[in-house]
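A further point concerns the way the authors explain their paired sequence and structure data. Showing the layout once, in full, would remove most of the difficulty. For illustration, here is how one protein appears when written out as sequence plus structure tokens:
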Amino acid sequence: MQKEDCFYLGKIVKKYSFKGELLAKLDTDEPELYEALDSIFVDLRGNLVPFFLESSQLHKSELLRIKFEDVETEQDADALLKCGLYLPIEFLPKLEDDKFYFHEIIGFKVEDKHFGHVGTIVSVNDSTAQSLFEIDRDGIEILIPMNDEFISKVDKKNKTIFVETPEGLIDLYL
């Protein structure tokens, strides 16, 4: 399994017991969806390795307590600390029409109500306080905040996102 065929679920943050149990911080608003997994991919030195779960349950509502098969000791668990957890993309829950996952909109066109065709989404920058559409317009990078007030319509069928940005925002980049 390749990383591009998967989505990032979370990260193992600490050990829970001396019997190899671990706690993972999930990157989701609905951790309960991932409580009864049979297996998960763990990023070990850049390779996704499948691990089977003996058990998993929510711990204090925000962490997932995991017991992997064949991870029996603290030393076994130490080797997995800070590792990323991944699942195949098909495990993502389906979203309503106007909602989207970041990976879904790569390649979508962006049309602004006042400006017209802006460009094509090449990436989403979610490392800032507010996520940004990274748009390519003939080699020029344009950043538009992913703000609900700016997004007027998401047309998944035609791979287009319609926005209404404040006047002059797009012109700043040109």
About this structure: Residues 10 and 123 are 20 Å apart (CA to CA). The longest strand covers residues 47-59. The mean pLDDT is 91.
